Amino acid sequence: GENVEQHPSTLSVQEGDSAVIKCTYSDSASNYFPWYKQELGKGPQLIIDIRSNVGEKKDQRIAVTLNKTAKHFSLHITETQPEDSAVYFCAANDRASGTYKYIFGTGTRLKVLA
Amino acid sequence: EAGVAQSPRYKIIEKRQSVAFWCNPISGHATLYWYQQILGQGPKLLIQFQNNGVVDDSQLPKDRFSAERLKGVDSTLKIQPAKLEDSAVYLCASSLEDRGRYGYTFGSGTRLTVV
After folding, report:
1. Residues of chain B contacting A93 with CB distance shorter than 8 Å
2. Do A46 and B104 touch (CB under 8 A)?
3. In this complex, do A104 and B93 lie within 8 Å of one another by their Cβ atoms?
4. Which of A8, A66, B1, B65 would bridge with A73, disulfide CB 3.0–4.6 Å?
5. B15 or A95, which is more confident?
């Protein structure tokens, strides 16, 4: 089945700087890669996603890139703000299981320092 | 639209006791998921329902965990008896369809502490 690795586990940046979180996946059949933001005491919230037929997707300050050959995808946050501080999870759909469940990475705790 | 509702928000029980969690998905969402999130880890799927049928329960510890989704709407997840290692946040999520091609919507979760 699918396995997703995520790095780094923690990331501190100065307000206004950029942040990059990287994930790798193992199953080349995976074709959908969502990113979730989880704030303290809340459930994960979908912030952006990308499908395997696209190499890059951008939504305001957030962008995701996908390299299918290398089986890795990244989240880029520009002009970081204190409210971006949260735990971010990448995920990939596990098509091998036949049920398309998501396999999540272990999370990155992002701290934006004012 | 209203989000995914879960209750209770917090629960503390002693080991070997039983506990139940409730989830009400977004109206019209046919697919419902229960995930377990241990502190410091990503969510892990326990069970997936399509309407009121089980699609995937391969990672559900069936000797102690059970779940049902009556009438294809609300769902309950039960643990009996609980172990210390069951301490986690239990997240319910729903989606419009079963192929995972669109992001889930998660509830706020139930934080379970087993002492």
Report:
1. 100-101
2. yes
3. no
4. A66
5. B15
